[in-house]
Amino acid sequence: MQSISFRDLFDHIGTPRMTFSKRAEALSGREVELRGYLVAMHADPRQITLAGEAGVCPDCAENPVAYVHLPGFNPGAGLFSSQAVRLKGSLAYGFAIAPEGYATFLRLENASVATGLKPGLLSGKRG
Predict the structure, then answer these.
(1) What is d(CA 43, CA 24) in angstroms, rounded to the nearest whole number?
(2) What is the pLDDT of residues 90-103, one digit of tens each?
(3) What is the pTM of this model?
């Protein structure tokens, strides 16, 4: 599992020139952990995304927003807050239609909340 940031996935974040980075494609298919803020898209609230900054809506923002789609992810209501969450899953780069029916180019598949606990930590076993 590799911990990454939105800067690994996008170039020129926060500007009209924002694009996917070459590293995004190179990381495709890898298990990653990414920190961000959960946002439901206004156009379709079934489109759950992880955004790179709090309080920013990818649908409404003046400049492009760094985010990844989370197909099939069903967060509890408590995860939608101004607090960051860490999600883990398989990064996928390239055009696809999500099971919910929307088009996506960058997504975290089989996403789940990363606990930060190391295997064996609570059992006393050393990894």
Answers:
(1) 25
(2) 999 999 998 888 88
(3) 0.83
Separation of alpha carbons 60 and 105, rounded Å = 19
Helical residues (DSSP H) of the chain, grouped into ranges: 6-9, 22-27
Is residue 2 within 8 A of residue 26, CB to CB? The reply is no
Strands 31-40, 2-4: parallel, antiparallel or unpaired by DSSP? Answer: parallel
Q: Which residue has the tokens 């790179």?
A: 52
Long-range Cβ pairs for the range 71-76 (8 Å, 24+): 71/98, 71/99, 71/100, 71/104, 71/107, 71/109, 72/98, 72/99, 72/100, 72/109, 72/110, 72/111, 73/48, 73/108, 73/111, 74/48, 75/38, 75/48
